Amino acid sequence: MKQTKLYRGYPNEYAALQRIASFWTEKNDFWPVEMVSQSVARAHVSLRYYEEKPDVWSGLILYQLIDDQAELIYLFVDPSKRLKGIGGILFREMVRTMCSELNHVELLLEVRPSNAGAVKFYESYGMKQTGRRSNYYSDGEDALIFRTVFNGKL
Q1: CATH number for the domain including 141?
Q2: What is the pLDDT along the chain (154 residues), one digit of tens a residue?
Q3: In terms of C-beta density within 10 A (0-12 exposed, 13-18 middle, 19 or more buried), how is residue 5 classed?
Q4: Domain count, the chain
Protein backbone atom coordinates (compact mmCIF):
# COMPACT_ATOMS: atom_id res chain seq x y z
CA MET A 1 0.00 0.00 0.00
CA LYS A 2 3.01 2.35 0.28
CA GLN A 3 2.33 5.21 -2.12
CA THR A 4 1.90 8.94 -2.49
CA LYS A 5 -1.55 10.38 -2.93
CA LEU A 6 -3.04 13.78 -3.59
CA TYR A 7 -5.02 15.17 -0.65
CA ARG A 8 -8.70 15.67 -1.50
CA GLY A 9 -10.09 16.56 1.93
CA TYR A 10 -12.04 13.38 2.54
CA PRO A 11 -12.94 12.76 6.20
CA ASN A 12 -10.48 9.88 6.57
CA GLU A 13 -7.73 12.03 5.02
CA TYR A 14 -8.50 14.92 7.37
CA ALA A 15 -8.25 12.55 10.35
CA ALA A 16 -4.88 11.28 9.09
CA LEU A 17 -3.72 14.87 8.58
CA GLN A 18 -4.69 15.65 12.18
CA ARG A 19 -2.68 12.65 13.42
CA ILE A 20 0.51 13.57 11.58
CA ALA A 21 0.05 17.26 12.43
CA SER A 22 0.24 16.39 16.12
CA PHE A 23 4.00 15.88 15.60
CA TRP A 24 4.61 19.42 14.40
CA THR A 25 1.99 21.25 16.48
CA GLU A 26 3.69 20.09 19.69
CA LYS A 27 6.58 22.39 18.85
CA ASN A 28 4.60 25.01 16.89
CA ASP A 29 6.85 24.35 13.90
CA PHE A 30 4.13 24.90 11.35
CA TRP A 31 0.54 25.96 10.74
CA PRO A 32 -2.40 24.44 12.59
CA VAL A 33 -4.07 21.59 10.72
CA GLU A 34 -7.13 23.72 9.90
CA MET A 35 -4.92 26.25 8.12
CA VAL A 36 -3.22 23.51 6.11
CA SER A 37 -6.58 22.08 5.08
CA GLN A 38 -7.92 25.52 4.13
CA SER A 39 -4.83 26.32 2.06
CA VAL A 40 -5.32 23.14 0.00
CA ALA A 41 -8.78 24.40 -0.96
CA ARG A 42 -7.06 27.00 -3.15
CA ALA A 43 -6.66 25.94 -6.77
CA HIS A 44 -2.89 26.46 -6.91
CA VAL A 45 -1.98 24.68 -3.63
CA SER A 46 -1.44 20.92 -3.43
CA LEU A 47 -0.72 18.48 -0.63
CA ARG A 48 0.64 15.02 -1.33
CA TYR A 49 1.08 12.45 1.37
CA TYR A 50 2.91 9.16 1.76
CA GLU A 51 0.66 6.42 3.06
CA GLU A 52 2.21 3.20 4.31
CA LYS A 53 -1.10 1.67 5.31
CA PRO A 54 -4.67 2.93 5.04
CA ASP A 55 -5.16 6.30 6.75
CA VAL A 56 -1.68 6.32 8.31
CA TRP A 57 0.63 8.92 6.83
CA SER A 58 4.39 8.84 7.20
CA GLY A 59 4.97 12.17 5.50
CA LEU A 60 3.51 14.99 3.48
CA ILE A 61 4.55 17.79 1.15
CA LEU A 62 2.62 21.03 0.72
CA TYR A 63 3.40 23.26 -2.25
CA GLN A 64 1.94 25.84 -4.57
CA LEU A 65 2.37 26.28 -8.30
CA ILE A 66 1.50 29.60 -9.91
CA ASP A 67 2.39 29.97 -13.58
CA ASP A 68 5.97 28.65 -13.82
CA GLN A 69 6.92 29.34 -10.20
CA ALA A 70 6.51 26.92 -7.34
CA GLU A 71 7.02 27.26 -3.64
CA LEU A 72 7.62 24.30 -1.38
CA ILE A 73 5.67 25.37 1.69
CA TYR A 74 6.28 22.38 3.94
CA LEU A 75 7.87 18.95 3.81
CA PHE A 76 7.34 16.82 6.89
CA VAL A 77 8.18 13.22 7.70
CA ASP A 78 7.09 11.44 10.88
CA PRO A 79 10.18 11.54 13.14
CA SER A 80 10.13 7.73 13.54
CA LYS A 81 10.20 7.32 9.73
CA ARG A 82 12.99 9.74 8.86
CA LEU A 83 16.08 8.73 6.88
CA LYS A 84 14.09 6.03 5.07
CA GLY A 85 13.65 7.88 1.77
CA ILE A 86 10.11 9.14 2.33
CA GLY A 87 11.08 12.82 2.00
CA GLY A 88 12.82 12.05 -1.28
CA ILE A 89 9.84 10.14 -2.62
CA LEU A 90 7.53 13.07 -1.81
CA PHE A 91 9.95 15.66 -3.23
CA ARG A 92 10.47 13.75 -6.48
CA GLU A 93 6.72 13.21 -6.86
CA MET A 94 6.13 16.95 -6.41
CA VAL A 95 8.71 17.75 -9.10
CA ARG A 96 7.34 15.06 -11.43
CA THR A 97 3.81 16.45 -11.03
CA MET A 98 4.92 20.03 -11.66
CA CYS A 99 7.01 19.06 -14.69
CA SER A 100 4.12 17.07 -16.17
CA GLU A 101 2.21 20.36 -16.30
CA LEU A 102 5.10 22.64 -17.33
CA ASN A 103 8.49 22.13 -18.94
CA HIS A 104 10.13 24.88 -16.91
CA VAL A 105 9.49 25.35 -13.18
CA GLU A 106 11.40 27.56 -10.76
CA LEU A 107 11.18 26.18 -7.22
CA LEU A 108 11.68 28.31 -4.11
CA LEU A 109 11.74 27.30 -0.46
CA GLU A 110 12.85 28.57 2.93
CA VAL A 111 14.66 26.43 5.49
CA ARG A 112 16.14 27.02 8.92
CA PRO A 113 19.95 27.25 8.96
CA SER A 114 19.88 25.01 12.05
CA ASN A 115 18.17 22.25 10.06
CA ALA A 116 21.40 20.90 8.57
CA GLY A 117 19.74 17.67 7.41
CA ALA A 118 17.16 19.57 5.38
CA VAL A 119 19.80 21.89 3.91
CA LYS A 120 21.84 18.87 2.78
CA PHE A 121 18.68 17.19 1.44
CA TYR A 122 17.73 20.19 -0.73
CA GLU A 123 21.30 20.64 -1.95
CA SER A 124 21.28 16.99 -3.05
CA TYR A 125 18.48 17.92 -5.47
CA GLY A 126 20.49 20.75 -6.98
CA MET A 127 18.98 23.55 -4.95
CA LYS A 128 21.23 26.53 -4.24
CA GLN A 129 21.05 29.05 -1.43
CA THR A 130 20.23 32.42 -3.01
CA GLY A 131 19.40 34.56 0.00
CA ARG A 132 18.48 34.86 3.64
CA ARG A 133 15.44 36.27 5.45
CA SER A 134 16.35 37.79 8.82
CA ASN A 135 14.23 36.85 11.83
CA TYR A 136 11.88 34.86 9.59
CA TYR A 137 10.69 32.28 12.11
CA SER A 138 8.67 33.04 15.23
CA ASP A 139 11.65 32.19 17.45
CA GLY A 140 13.79 34.78 15.63
CA GLU A 141 15.82 32.32 13.56
CA ASP A 142 16.65 33.40 10.02
CA ALA A 143 15.50 31.48 6.95
CA LEU A 144 17.79 30.43 4.13
CA ILE A 145 16.22 30.88 0.70
CA PHE A 146 16.88 28.09 -1.78
CA ARG A 147 16.03 28.10 -5.49
CA THR A 148 16.45 25.90 -8.52
CA VAL A 149 14.92 25.41 -11.94
CA PHE A 150 13.61 22.11 -13.22
CA ASN A 151 13.44 21.85 -17.01
CA GLY A 152 10.99 19.05 -17.60
CA LYS A 153 12.50 16.58 -15.13
CA LEU A 154 14.45 16.18 -11.91
Answers
A1: 3.40.630.30
A2: 567 888 887 888 888 898 888 887 655 567 888 888 888 888 789 999 999 888 889 999 999 988 888 999 999 999 899 999 999 999 999 988 888 777 778 999 999 999 999 999 999 999 999 999 999 988 899 999 999 998 876 6
A3: middle
A4: 1
